[in-house]
Amino acid sequence: MIHEEFMEPKDKVPSLTAEADLFYKRQLEQYNQRFTGEQEFGYLENRDEALYLNYYNFLMGYVKSHIGHEYPRDPRTLLTKNAQAINRLFYSSSLEEILDNLRRESDTPFARLCLEKMSQNSTLSMKLALRMLRQARNLDFKGCLQNEINVALNKIQDAEFDQGVAQVLLKPGNSASPDIFSKKVSEQQVDSYFQPNKWSEEVQLDVVEKAMLPTRFYYEKYSDQVRLWINEDSTPQPDVREHFDAELKEALREQGIDLRDRALTIESARAQLYNVEQ
């Protein structure tokens, strides 16, 4: 197929294929705009004249549209605004203590909002999430993923998981009734979800030990070159690959790592940054 930009004007004729392709792209863009509600990238991303499906946004958008919660555009604004209250109310590793803390300050908008949202959630799921968050303090990125995979594979086998899917995910915008989830959850019951699952060992994670965490602040703090080198990863982006070595040396030097050190290894550099971030 010869692209029209390489054809003589006299040879250009209407192409049904081209028109259909253009119409299809316009339909996708309109769908994307309707779905996000704004003129910005959402499920469909337009990069370099091509359209790609953003699977992460697709799945997260589906979940958010079905569970009835409202999410701020930038969660850091909400976190920063209520940082002191969060530290004061959510310090405990016990869900019951956290709820008691919130009830004591239920005359404040933030605590009242938290209580309202948490009352719609599964007590078991909140306890599992809280324990995983506390355990994550002493785990690297790979360890966190392995922990979550193990718990998730255990969780999908219980009846409450099926109830959550039926009553929440399959009903758009519906807030789950507090009555569908049990409020009485023992620590022994929580412990059972952290028991080794035989299928979790089959999941191969392409993540090195002590890899840098892929969070929003991680992307802001470290350059692409540092992140890729430390995590022993690669990228198809030509602008990152073109001057990788030269820019890597400067970026690592800013972190106190000198590539001229013959005793330096990727593992030791990764351990150094990992210890700094702990």
Write up this protein.
The protein is mainly alpha-helical and 278 residues long. The protein folds into 4 domains: 4-53; 68-119, no CATH class; 125-207, no CATH class; 216-277, no CATH class. It is built from 15 helices and 2 strands. The longest helix has 21 residues, at 16-36. The protein is globular and about 60 Å long. Residues 1-7 and 38-52 have low confidence and may be disordered.
Report the structural category.
mainly alpha
Report the radius of gyration as a whole number of Å.
Answer: 24 Å
> How many strands in all?
2
- Which descriptor suits the 3D outline? globular
How far apart, in Å, are the first and last alpha carbons? 56 Å
What is the helix content? 55-70%
Strand order within the widest beta sheet: 1-2
Report the portion of residues in β strands: under 5%
Figure out the total of helices.
Answer: 15
**Strand/helix succession:** HEEHHHHHHHHHHHHHH
The residue ranges in which pLDDT falls below 50 over 5 or more consecutive positions are: 1-7, 38-52
Mean pLDDT: 76
Number of domains: 4
Largest sheet: 2 strands, antiparallel
What labels describe this entry?
278 residues; mainly alpha; two-stranded antiparallel sheet; globular
Summarize the structure.
By secondary structure, the protein is mainly α. Helix content is 55%, strand content 3%.
